[in-house]
């Protein structure tokens, strides 16, 4: 096929006049029977790299793909180039026996040129035996990063691909991925047994994408609604880490007349498929999804991708943002960030194998670096993938369009490099910073690094400052992070030279992010401080009258929201943060009366037109939890049944009682707690506490009490006194 005119074939099958980037060279490599590795960003045209050679070669190409929805899209697309639908098929768990027989018949007749299979389907003995009997042109491993434990979407079944290929029958392999660091790339090639593969690497730079990170505050839902309203009719994807958040946010958007639907792996296949079609056919504008959505979705005009939660890795972030602006047009990539999100993600890793936890923590550190930096986001992102970006200003990220103050940090960088050198380049960032600022701990003493001359040479700055120095030193090429050792910092040749002969090093301190937790409410100032003060006075009077702590009546964030939204009747009060039916009935009238009188006396116009409508929280999860508690099921059993961590279930139950629903968990407390312990904690909340903070309670009560005990009794106390 050396003399084949590929441009003619491209025009014949796909209607394109020319190839993009390395497509032609990749296709020739496959046609020549060579193992081929393709690293090409989303939107670069990876699919064509195996589709065209499959159509031109003798036999059937086996395309190994991770998602049924992705296979369906690909099969539907490739069938458009032929008069015979049998040209492409898939084998997966959704097919009936009759459908599988039809697939095999088309393959046997030589009609089928592309057969899409999930790795799980490939392992079935009957499929292996059948595939042994057919002529295979080549194997294509799509989303190949799934092979690597260092990849953002690791799937153990992908590790079995090479043994299965050996069993079925050897043929050339083309591995394709949109995101892979050097470590992941090496891992893929090693695991697929293709060390000498011809390699094609496209630039990761997507110049049309605008990258922005905003602090996540109590108003994150409102920020998102306003963002979407400013882009009427444009398509967007919002990613959340939990299914619950996906469903809740989708409801908020719909309540604000935004055409939006939820999408996650817990929904029925038919519902997910319909939602996907609705998005592609523009019957809706916005998908709110977990990362289950988007792989292989061929929608070129997604105009924005929002990350409600910061993702677990920069690879995942890059792939998800890559679904914006695939046509080269506008693509706004907005991420909301709070350090609390990182803490939650680290908690989710607890109990996993040590190596997996180390990988996960390193990936989270890279994500934090990206979010907190004040330097060009494009530069940080490309550096992570081993690509240098030499422009000082990309003119298309928030940091470049709104630059922060830079200063010459050559002295600080030199001090950091000296510490890396003196500890023999064997330690990670946190350890190095502890040496820099002179913070002793058992680890440092065991290595005698507290005796080094460099110990404490950076005590004039804090940890956040030194984090910025190390991060930007790595970015500038003076240090490197060793992936094999989970992030040990090494000196480069440039770094060693810098110690003896420093030069100007322009740097900027990282951005400061507050530890706001959206689940816990906010401590931000209210719009109307005078009203807030009056509401607090009323709460205090009511607490004295009722003999209960003020926070039991309404939490601070509820009062702040009242002083912003001015609810003057009970229906409006239900839209206030942390206020449910129970609280409205029990305490609502006097507060609404006060607000109504205040508005009248001060001639205040309520901001109805400015308000983003919120949704009363009546999700299926909450209803299910209430029903299970009514049946007196063990809370740990409820957590397992709902697919929640036990801690997260306690958070959910507390949110339910805090907003006004009465729940009786006495049956469970009696089972797991000593009665005297229980009443001592209960008395603390009733008599001594000024807040419902668990840490404050533990400090006051002492080491004899566990966090679980305090949280359980807090639920009991709030349920009995707040509702």
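^ structure tokens above, recovered residues below v
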């Amino acid at each position: 096929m050396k003399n084949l005119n590929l441009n003619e074939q491209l025009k014949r099958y796909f209607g394109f006049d020319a190839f993009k980037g390395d497509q032609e060279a990749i296709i020739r490599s496959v046609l020549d029977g060579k193992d081929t590795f393709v690293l090409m960003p989303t939107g670069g045209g990876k699919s064509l790299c195996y589709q065209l050679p499959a159509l031109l070669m003798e036999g059937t190409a086996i395309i190994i793909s991770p998602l049924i929805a992705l296979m369906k899209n690909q099969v539907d697309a490739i069938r458009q180039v032929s008069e015979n639908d049998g040209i492409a098929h898939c084998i997966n768990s959704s097919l009936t026996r009759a459908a599988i027989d039809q697939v095999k018949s088309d393959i046997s007749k030589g009609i089928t040129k592309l057969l899409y299979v999930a790795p799980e389907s490939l392992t079935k003995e009957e499929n292996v035996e059948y595939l042994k009997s057919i002529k295979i042109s080549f194997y294509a491993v799509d989303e190949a990063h799934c092979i690597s434990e260092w990849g953002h979407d690791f799937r153990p079944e992908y590790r079995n691909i090479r043994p299965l290929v050996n069993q079925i029958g050897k043929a050339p392999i083309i591995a394709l991925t949109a995101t892979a660091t050097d470590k992941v790339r090496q891992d893929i090639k090693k695991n697929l047994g293709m060390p000498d593969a011809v390699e094609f690497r496209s630039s990761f730079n997507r110049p049309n994408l605008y990258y922005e990170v905003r602090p996540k505050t109590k108003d994150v839902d409102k920020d998102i609604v306003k963002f979407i309203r400013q882009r009427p009719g444009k398509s967007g994807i919002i990613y959340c880490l939990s299914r619950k958040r996906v469903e809740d946010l989708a409801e908020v958007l719909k309540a604000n007349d935004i055409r939006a639907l939820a999408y996650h792996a817990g929904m029925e296949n038919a519902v997910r498929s319909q939602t996907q079609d609705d998005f592609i056919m523009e019957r809706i504008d916005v998908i709110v999804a977990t990362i289950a959505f988007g792989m292989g979705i061929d929608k070129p005009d997604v105009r924005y991708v929002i990350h409600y939660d910061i993702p677990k890795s920069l690879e995942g972030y890059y792939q998800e943002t890559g679904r914006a602006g695939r046509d080269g047009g506008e693509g706004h990539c907005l991420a909301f960030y709070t350090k609390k999100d990182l803490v939650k993600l680290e908690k989710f890793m607890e109990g996993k194998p040590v190596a997996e936890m180390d990988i996960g923590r390193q990936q989270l550190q890279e994500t934090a670096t990206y979010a907190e930096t004040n330097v060009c986001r494009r530069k940080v992102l490309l550096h992570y993938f081993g690509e240098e970006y030499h422009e000082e200003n990309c003119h298309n990220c928030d940091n470049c369009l709104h630059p922060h103050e830079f200063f010459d940090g050559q002295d600080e960088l030199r001090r950091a490099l000296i510490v890396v050198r003196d500890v023999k380049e064997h330690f990670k960032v946190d350890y190095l910073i502890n040496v820099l600022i002179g913070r002793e701990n058992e680890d440092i003493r065991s290595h005698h690094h507290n005796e080094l001359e460099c110990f404490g040479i950076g005590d004039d700055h804090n940890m956040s400052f030194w984090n910025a120095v190390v991060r930007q030193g790595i970015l500038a090429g003076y240090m490197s992070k060793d992936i094999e050792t989970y992030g040990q910092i090494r000196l480069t040749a440039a770094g060693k030279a810098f110690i003896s002969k420093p030069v100007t090093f322009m740097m900027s301190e990282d951005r400061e992010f507050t530890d706001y937790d959206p689940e816990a409410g906010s401590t931000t100032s209210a719009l109307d401080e005078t009203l807030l003060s009056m509401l607090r006075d009323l709460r205090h009077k009511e607490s004295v009258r009722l003999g209960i702590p003020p926070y039991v009546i309404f939490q601070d964030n509820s009062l702040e929201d009242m002083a912003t939204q001015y609810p003057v009747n009970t229906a409006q009060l239900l839209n206030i943060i942390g206020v449910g039916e129970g609280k409205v009935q029990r305490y609502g009238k006097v507060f609404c009366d006060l607000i109504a009188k205040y508005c009248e006396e001060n001639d205040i116009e309520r901001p109805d037109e400015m308000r983003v409508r919120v949704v009363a929280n009546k999700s299926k999860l909450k209803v299910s939890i209430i029903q299970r508690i009514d049946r007196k099921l063990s809370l740990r059993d409820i957590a397992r049944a709902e697919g929640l961590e036990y801690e997260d279930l306690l958070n959910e139950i507390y949110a339910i009682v805090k907003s006004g629903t009465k729940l009786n968990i006495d049956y469970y407390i009696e089972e797991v707690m000593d009665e005297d312990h229980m009443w001592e904690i209960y008395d603390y909340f009733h008599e001594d506490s000024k807040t419902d903070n668990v840490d404050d309670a533990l400090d006051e009560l002492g080491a004899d009490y566990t966090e679980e005990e305090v949280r359980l009794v807090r639920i009991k106390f709030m349920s009995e006194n707040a509702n």
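Confidence is low (pLDDT under 50) at residues 517-526.
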